[in-house]
Amino acid sequence: MASSSSLDHTRTLASQVGGHAGVQTTEDGSLIIKPALPLEHKFYLELTTSDAFAALRPYVPRFFGTLKLEGEVDETKSNTGGGIVIKETDTKEHKDKCCFLLSLVLENLSHPFLKPNILDAKLGTVLYDEEASPDKVERMLKTARETTSLETGVRLTGFQVYDNATSQPINTPKSYGKSIKPSDLPEGIRRFFPISSAESSSGLPANLLLPILQYLREDIAEIRGALADLHFRMVGGSLLIIYEADFKKAEEGIQWVKDVEEGKIDPESDEDEDDDKDGEDAAKKQKPRSPYVVKLIDFAHTRIKPGEGPDEGVLKGIDTVLSLLDGRIKEVEALLGD
Question: Please, are residues 116 and 244 in contact by the beta-carbon 8 Å criterion?
């Protein structure tokens, strides 16, 4: 995998709803450049080379290599969530002291979507790394107790949902996910998966939302199965869920999934054709693609633990997400059945 020391022609990732500052996207929007701790780089290397991760690979962003960032780590803004903020080093004195940090080059999961609705759901009941200071451990234990993390294994870190009237995303910040109780999680899922109606300016029609919910549930169940066979501990990792808010694109995407399931389309060859097109405008003119995607992200504090079994706190979080989706699916089915 090639590496480079240049970050020319990048910009801040506009669709980021969780995590920490510092994530960039390439000029065409197809890739993200994320400052990373060595542990996360190690995880991606093991993911691409170890047979133990074969079942998980389809549900992790594609890894294209690394870049080197020149600067100093801003310790005041770096934490166990996996984010690293780099302070610029303009003076010679700073440059003499600067460090070179690896930055991961990953696929931008939101790039193929015209209007991406995006949810970052943090997984796990343990929010501190095993090397965290006692003070950090105490603070993270308190955070887990006072949010939905400890009881349910999941917290809605942040999400965006497009307004159909303005065609602009409406962001729900981290403060919402930190303020709600476990009993409020179903309402949080309704807010992320609204149904278009005379009363709501957001959401897809119920007949389009239902299959997307069902597809997402199937994939998340497969992610759970893959994680149940891994001996690992993941702190600060998330499920990233994206689905198309544009009615026409969503409808075309649902038909595309059906065609793939019926063997009418080879998804890999279809993807290769789209990869040959350059530029942001071309991306919006691509053939229909999946109207949703769900991936595991943020592995800055993920450790392989042979012989210790799966991370039960993470599995608990995924089980909660599956239960929440089941509830929303029943609500949409009931609406369509009226």
Answer: yes
**Fold category of 116-337 in CATH:** D-amino Acid Aminotransferase; Chain A, domain 1 (3.30.470)
Angle (nearest 5°) at CA 183 between 179 and 186: 95
Q: Which amino acid is at 320?
A: T
Residues 6+ apart with CB under 8 A from 329: 210, 213, 214, 217
| Res 22: pLDDT | 64
Beta strands at 168-172 and 3-4: parallel, antiparallel or unpaired: unpaired
Measured between alpha carbons, how far is residue 68 from residues 4, 24, 77, 99, 105 in Å? 6, 13, 19, 10, 10
Q: How far apart are CA 221 and CA 235, in angstroms?
A: 20
CA distance 311 to 317: 10
- In which residue ranges of the chain is pLDDT below 70? 1-22, 69-101, 269-286, 338
**Phi and psi based region of residue 15 (left: phi greater than 0; alpha: psi -120 to 50; beta: remaining):** alpha
Half-sphere exposure of residue 270: CA atoms within 13 angstroms, side-chain side: 15
Residues above pLDDT 90, as percent of the chain: 61
Tokens of 98: 């600067």
pTM value is 0.84
Backbone phi and psi for residue 260, each to the nearest 5 degrees, phi listed first: -65, -45
Quote the tokens at residue 229: 């066979």
Kindly list the domain boundaries of the chain, sorted by start residue.
3-107, 116-337
Instruction: Say what the pLDDT of residue 4 is.
Output: 41
The reported pLDDT for the residue numbered 270 is 61
| 3-state class (DSSP) for residue 108 | coil
Predicted pLDDT at 287: 72
